[in-house]
Amino acid sequence: MDAVTLPWTDLLDPGAAQLEAEWPGGLYDIARAQLLAPARHGDEPRPKIDSHGDYVLAVFVVPVAVPADDRIFHQEVDLLVAPDHILTVRKTPDVAPGSTTTDPPYDPGGVRESLIESGSDVRPGTIAYRIADDVAEAFLDLLDDVHDEIDQLEDQVEDATDEFVRTRISELRHDLLHIRRTLAPTRDAVRRIVDGRVDGPNDSTFPHELELQFGDVFDKLLRASEGLESARDLIGGVRDYHQSKVANDQNEVMKRLTMVASLLLLPTFIVGLYGQNFIHMPELRWVHGYLYSWMLILGTTALQLWWFRRNHWI
Fold first, then answer.
1. Which of 117, 205, 206, 229 is the right S-S partner for 200, CB 3.0 to 4.6 Å?
2. CA 147 to mean position of chain CA atoms
3. Which helix (H) or strand (E) holds 16?
4. Ranges of residues in the chain whose predicted pLDDT is under 50
5. What is the pLDDT of residue 58?
6. Spatial contact of 227 and 221, defined as CB atoms under 8 Å apart
7. Which burial class, exposed, middle or buried, applies to 215 when counting CB atoms under 10 A from its CB (0-12, 13-18, 19+)?
8. Which pTM does this prediction carry?
9. Angle, to 10 degrees, between the axis of helix 208-274 and the axis of helix 124-156?
10. 152: exposed, middle or buried (C-beta count within 10 Å: 0-12, 13-18, 19+)?
């Protein structure tokens, strides 16, 4: 079988000269600025798919979980899609704060291999569809990891410290917020292709059959959105469970303190009673008075302990 040649050029962190050499037709200033901009920082850039006359510019941001470090980093990949060629620009993520290692950029190797193995002519729009589908799968995988993290945290609520649980809940809610900021615009951008609002010249970049395939990507992103909402509900459940546990622990402490106070109440009353400096007190000159007071204290304490245990208070 002859090797399949893909109309695809892939660049990693290109400079202006390399970019112009690979796309000699010229670029609009907006597209050039986007492709040469640094890797994603903060909430910029937002995922989008826009038509620029001769080509379509797409920006995808892929969130990737690092369970070992309890963090998420973002991989940015930009696409220029024309009827006869596609250019992808991948950007190496910034070094995470407090880390000395660089996170890997987006790897389209799996997409390329699957297209080559197909053994058929591949159009640039099809390559863009496969990359978008890979991005959608990345969101689904990420949310599976987040659900696993939430399940693990829920199992640790009983044994972990309150500070650890509060910190992890805050971190997971923060991660979900960042996922939402990339997932929602990605879904909206793909929806524009499905609705036929984005295309290159002569509607040849994304023909109707390809728009239907993008509908599958949109469905995956909808499932990811539903998974995101489910994760938010699960985190809310863990938070409520943790607050309930804290309240129960406080009730147990108050219960013990109340029991101790109750046990000390009668001995304190007895000691206070016989500590009064009255002259005519019957037990004052009784030879067994001291023993009597101790027996009275021990007897009433034992009676209280029996009563508490009988009513399952201790």
1. 205
2. 8
3. helix 16-22
4. 1-2
5. 95
6. no
7. middle
8. 0.79
9. 10
10. exposed
Kindly state the tokens that stand for 180. Answer: 């939402």
Which amino acid makes up residue 55?
A: Y
State residue 1's pLDDT score.
39
Residue 100 has a pLDDT of: 63
Tally of helices (H runs) and strands (E runs) in the chain: 7, 5
Indicate the DSSP class of residue 72.
E
* 3-state class (DSSP) for residue 216: helix
- Residue 180 has a pLDDT of 92
Nearest Cα neighbor of 74 from 150, 171, 179 is 179
Whole-number Å distance between alpha carbons of 53 and 31: 12
- AA letter at 109: G
User: Distance between CA 250 and CA 257 in Å, rounded?
Assistant: 11
Domains within the chain, CATH numbers bracketed:
8-247 (1.20.58.340), 248-310 (1.20.58.340)
**Per-position DSSP letters for 22-40, written without gaps between them:** H-TT---HHHHHHHHSPSP
- According to the model, what pLDDT value does residue 229 have? 95
